[in-house]
Write a structure and sequence with these properties.
Blueprint lengths: L1 E5 L2 H4 L16 E8 L2 E10 L1 H10 L6 E18 L5 E21 L4 E8 L1
Antiparallel strand pairs: 1-2, 2-3, 4-5, 5-6
Length: 122
């Protein structure tokens, strides 16, 4: 799992002199990339653009836990017929699975210029 962000320097930095006026400003983005069992899943984008970010900040939707990736993976599936001495046939079935649940939330304060993020893996 990997988290990515970009263009948030103007929100969290008070250093105005370091910005190059000739360089275009990067758009605010954030998201999560997940690789499960060797397969990369399409990135989950939390927001893209300053308008979407401010919408999350003012409405508080980022403060609620949001599921990003949920799946159940089949690890073992075995079926075997076993003849018994009494003449009956016993059927043995073994099924094993694992469940993934990735979710996250973020609390962002523009006034204190800090952020707190939480990612839960179950």
């Amino acid at each position: 799992m990997g988290l990515f962000t970009g263009g948030l320097g103007s929100f969290l930095s008070s250093d105005e002199e370091s910005a190059d006026p000739d360089e275009p400003e990067e758009s605010a983005t954030a998201g999560m990339e997940v690789t499960a069992l060797g397969v990369q899943v399409r990135p989950f984008v939390f927001f893209s653009g300053q308008g979407e970010l401010m919408g999350h900040v003012w409405s508080g939707t980022g403060s609620e836990k949001t599921p990003a990736f949920q799946t159940i993976a089949l690890l073992q599936d075995h079926l075997e017929y076993l003849p018994l001495q009494t003449g009956f046939i016993a059927e043995l079935s073994l099924i094993g699975a694992v469940s993934f649940d990735l979710s996250g939330q973020i609390q962002l304060s523009l006034w204190n210029k800090n952020a707190h993020s939480l990612v839960e893996k179950k």
